[in-house]
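User: Show me a protein chain along with its predicted structure.
Assistant: Here is one chain, sequence first, then structure tokens.
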Amino acid sequence: MDTSRFVKLMTLGYSSQTGYYLGISRTLTFFPFFIVGHYLSVDFITNIRGKIHSLYFCFTVVLVVFFFVYFSDMEPGWLWGSKPFSALGHNEWYAGFVRLILYIASFTMGISIMGILPDQLYKFTHNGSRTLMVFLWHGFIVKVLNGFGVIQLIGDWGTAKAMTIFLIMAFAITRSMSLT
């Protein structure tokens, strides 16, 4: 993706014209991830694994998670990609740089996780090959849990407890949907 297209995608957040309708804002916000996923080769991951020790990848994952926990007062809408910057409470000229930082953190986290993933098949790797259903259904599950107040209840327990509960729920849902 060339620089001009990326700049256009970054400035999209300043427009209130693209919203949740048909997922246009989300599609355009996450478009760089689709492009990178399309062009990213197995050779790239293999090269990066050969040059960087897996402990650095683990450290990076822990560091990014720490910053997200530390800045837990951040509006979650930044991660959804469905709201303009003004709806997130930021009309400032630098709001696009917040999205840029989130892009950098997301790409760094993605590459780090790919660097940690094993090359060989293990008993638990079978679950990872069957996560498409989790991806497709997670929005509905979150809406139901939110409707029953479960998300708010877990959120009131504090960040560390909430993240632990969500992690356990993610494993349980993935496990239950991958049994087919």
